[in-house]
Design goal:
By secondary structure, the chain is of the alpha/beta class. The protein has 21 helices and 30 strands. The protein has an 8-stranded mixed sheet, with helices on both faces. Bound molecules: adenosine-5'-monophosphate-propyl ester (PRX).
């Protein structure tokens, strides 16, 4: 495309952040691929920067080096909050819906959010947090969570949110990996009819975390907690004292904004690092387009801020657009399975974004929970986190979207920072189970078994991306080599997603699932290695292998093949002990659904466990194990087959 056409596209207003027709999508997409720098600079100009960029994008795929908007300065909170104060100060930024429907919801305007974030920023500074310091956030879904992230961003501290379902060991490992100076937590959290004592989990974790100097505690459950002198402080009195004036720290576009841990195929979690400028531009742009957000809409994403979906599409993306974003503390089934639908009616939610696992769980409940509610406010419904099966897609489209709301099946990852492949509502065709087309600036490719790009339109292979987009993770905290190895060496010149996908003859993508040792259970990524490490710590266990098997609600569940190193008198007791160990080391989300004790695990002559065979057995598919004669111990296959757990 030559410059002239690009200029025409700009003049026609296609670059004004929101795409309205299929023709516009095609024109904008072509422009974004042919002239990425021009394209992204047009989008980026719509934000407030205190210093402009020198270059739009500099990159080297081989070295896994990416710089977007180099030299520019901004603070993401100026764009999320301050920028809206002139015209929309009284507009609601966040709606907080508590766990119990009996507790009153809170509406926080942009003006109030500004004041709260400034006060919190001043508290952090007062407590000795400086630009570049890491702050761990271990909070339930309460307003303090959103405010803490924004306050860190405002002063230039790097937030590292750890999902409040992780155990104390998992928390400690993440705090230590990035040497956090502070932890922000709460006395406890409410989830359905349970209360979780978060502070005591933090206390246990901190016995192993020498870098942490201060702990700030939000009061939520009024649980009695222990306060360690000079380390632990209740937040409320500090906020009362703090000034409501705070000048945002000017940040370089490439300064880290946050670290967020994700599971890998090998042991240690990976601290994905996202930086300021590119992340800001990309999450704002994709939020606007994927959810077709219009002024005064009420948008609700049911994820937890502890995951990337919450970072990008509860907090940053919506606030960058001056949107109203709903923060929900509870669970879909409390006090009854109609809760999501009640909340939609209560606030007139227009865009609703959830996970296939929640859809499948709610589809199993009586339809009366849906039929008793109106849901008339809904305009767009979305899904994320794992492939959505056709049945769940149809149920969602029919019963929740009433066949009038487009379903946006958004594909992306912690590493990508924002949505890469998704239908655009009312623009893209609706094909159940297909994430359809790439968003502007995103260049997906499929790679075949020989490592070559599939050039035919139709095909299936490993999903890679061949050009950087602004919110691509920049590194793994403290281990750039691992970042390079994990994502950029399998197929040189490409970012490898770890997912398989197929492309139909219209060029639409359908994501088929992970092709590595990561298993997605109820939308949570779980690496098999850390779970196996946890089990193997048991003195009576020699070794173990975890595989996934299809599950009606969770999508996939975990099946463990475990070899004890002695005769076990109480196998059921051992199963319980294994799950307790996993809960303690990682968290209850990683518990095994099925455990089978085996004499041995099938191994290649080089000692590698043949997971392919175990996967088939777990799925109950005994056909065609392939050539097992090369195994070191082919006899165990029969034994494992016979002992399969139903
Ligand atoms: O396998 C893909 C799956 O979730 C993985 C990323 O997980 P995580 O980093 O936890 O981020 C989840 C939220 C963005 C991907 O590699 N995945 C995500 N969205 C979809 C999906 N699989 C199929 N369809 C999707 N829409």
């Amino acid at each position: 495309m030559n410059l002239l056409i690009f200029i025409i596209i700009i003049q026609q207003g296609y670059m004004k952040s929101k795409i309205n027709t299929l023709q516009e999508y095609k024109a904008v997409y072509t422009a974004s691929v042919n002239e990425p720098d021009l394209f992204w600079s047009e989008i980026a100009k719509q934000f407030t920067w205190s210093k402009p960029w020198e270059t739009v994008c500099e990159f080297d795929m081989e070295r896994a080096d990416f710089k977007w908007f180099k030299g520019a300065k901004t603070n993401i909170t100026i764009n999320c909050i301050d920028r809206h104060l002139k015209k929309n100060a009284e507009h609601t930024a966040l709606i907080f819906e508590p766990n119990s429907p009996k507790e009153e919801a809170q509406h926080i305007s942009y003006k109030e959010l500004h004041e709260k974030v400034c006060k919190m920023s001043n508290v952090l500074i007062e407590m000795g947090v400086h630009k570049g310091d890491r702050v761990a956030i271990y909070l339930p879904m309460i307003p303090e969570l959103a405010i803490s992230l924004l306050a860190c961003a405002r002063i230039g501290a790097i937030h590292s949110v750890i999902f409040a379902g992780f155990s104390s060991s998992a928390l400690a490992a993440r705090i230590n990996d990035s040497q956090c100076k502070m932890v922000i937590t709460s006395d406890g959290g409410f989830r359905g009819n349970k209360t979780i004592d978060l502070k005591s989990i933090v206390d246990e974790a901190l016995m192993q975390c020498p870098s942490v100097q201060k702990v700030l505690i939000a009061e939520r459950t009024k649980t009695v907690i222990t306060i360690k002198k000079n380390r632990d402080f209740y937040l409320a009195p500090l906020l009362d004292e703090a000034s409501k004036i705070n000048e945002a720290e000017p940040m370089d576009a490439e300064d880290p904004l946050f670290i967020l841990y994700t599971s890998g195929s090998t042991g240690k979690p990976k601290g994905m690092v996202h930086t300021t400028g590119g992340y800001m531009v990309y999450t704002a742009y994709t939020f606007k387009n994927v959810f077709a957000y219009e002024q005064r809409d009420v948008y609700w994403c049911t994820a937890d801020i502890g995951w990337i979906t919450g970072h990008s599409y509860i907090l940053y993306g919506p606030l960058l657009n001056g949107a109203t974003s709903l923060l929900f503390e509870g669970v879909p089934t409390f006090p009854n399975p109609g809760r999501f639908w009640d909340v939609i009616d209560k606030f007139g939610v227009n865009q609703f974004y959830t996970a296939p696992t929640a859809i499948r769980a709610l589809a199993k409940e009586s339809l009366s929970h849906v039929q008793n509610r109106s849901l008339a406010s809904l305009k767009i419904i979305g899904t994320v986190g794992e492939p959505i099966n056709e049945e769940a897609w149809q149920w969602y489209h029919k019963n929740i979207g009433k066949e009038k709301c487009p379903v946006v099946d958004t594909w992306w990852q912690t590493e990508t920072g924002g949505i890469l492949i998704s239908p655009l509502p009312h623009i893209s065709p609706q094909i159940p189970t297909y994430a359809t087309t790439p968003l502007p600036g995103v260049q997906p490719v499929l790679i075949d078994d020989n490592g070559n790009e599939i050039t035919d339109t139709e095909g299936s292979g490993k999903l890679c991306i061949k050009y950087p987009w602004p919110s691509i993770a920049r590194t793994i905290w403290g281990d750039h080599n691992r970042y390079k190895e994990t994502y950029f060496t399998a197929f040189p010149g490409y970012y490898f997603t770890g997912d398989g996908a197929l492309r139909n003859k219209e060029g639409m993508y359908r994501i088929t699932g992970r092709v590595d040792d990561v298993i997605i259970v109820s939308g949570h990524n779980l690496g098999t290695a850390p779970i196996e490490d946890a089990i193997n710590e048991h003195p009576d266990i020699a070794e173990s292998a975890i595989v996934g098997f299809p599950h009606d609600i969770k999508g996939h569940a975990l099946y463990g093949f475990v070899t004890p190193n002695k005769d076990l008198p109480d196998l059921n007791g051992m199963k319980e002990a294994i799950n307790t160990l996993i809960s303690k080391k990682i968290g209850p989300i990683a518990k095994l659904d099925k455990i089978q004790f085996t004499e041995g695990l099938p191994k290649t002559r080089s000692g590698k466990i043949m997971r392919r065979i175990l996967r088939k057995i777990a799925e109950g598919d005994f056909s065609n194990f392939g050539d097992i004669s090369t195994l070191l111990n082919p006899e165990v296959v029969e034994e494992i087959k016979n002992g399969r757990q139903n």
